[in-house]
Amino acid sequence: MDKLINDFSFGLFIWQIILFLLLLFLLRKFAWRPILKAVEDRETGIKDALDSAEKAKLEMANLQADNEKLLQEARAEREVMLKEAREMKANMIADAKTEAQAEASKTIANAQVAIEGEKKAAIAELKETVASLSIEIAEKVVKSELSSKEKQLALVDSMLKDAKLN
Predict the structure, then answer these.
(1) CB of 159 within 8 A of CB of 137?
(2) How many of the other CB atoms lie within 10 Å of CB of 151?
């Protein structure tokens, strides 16, 4: 360090200061401005990227809200459709029951009409059989008992007592 202090030259010192100032001037003019401009551009780019990220975040939140809203609407619509399907099912079952009851009533009525017809036919046949038997009995009575009037009356009375009408 002693050597530097002993060899100190004032002229060299001034030339070094002049060259240093010239170097600073050239750096400021040609280097600092482009470097600062690049730093500012980078800062602006980062700021724009952050703004874009914030906008994207907001858009994602809006999309999620829209999706949730759509899901709620879809669920509500599904519930309405299920309710309508249940109502249609209940109506179809009720209609089927009503139709089956009507068909059963109609079948029962037809069966009752058929039974009544069979009953009338059986009564008519029974009357016809009774009439033919009565005629046969009358013929036999007339043949066997035609000679005596007292026997005819006694026979008719006994037959009337034996015969029961329903």
Answers:
(1) yes
(2) 13
pLDDT along the chain (166 residues), means of 10: 70 91 89 86 95 95 94 95 95 94 94 94 89 82 67 76 68
d(CA 73, CA 46): 40
- Concatenated DSSP letters of 57-92: HHHHHHHHHHHHHHHHHHHHHHHHHHHHHHHHHHHH
Helix axes 149-162, 33-145, angle to 10 degrees: 160
Name residue 138's amino acid.
Answer: A
SS3 annotation, 36-52: HHHHHHHHHHHHHHHHH
First to last CA, the chain: 161
What does the alpha-carbon distance between residue 124 and residue 64 come to, in Å, rounded to a whole number? 88
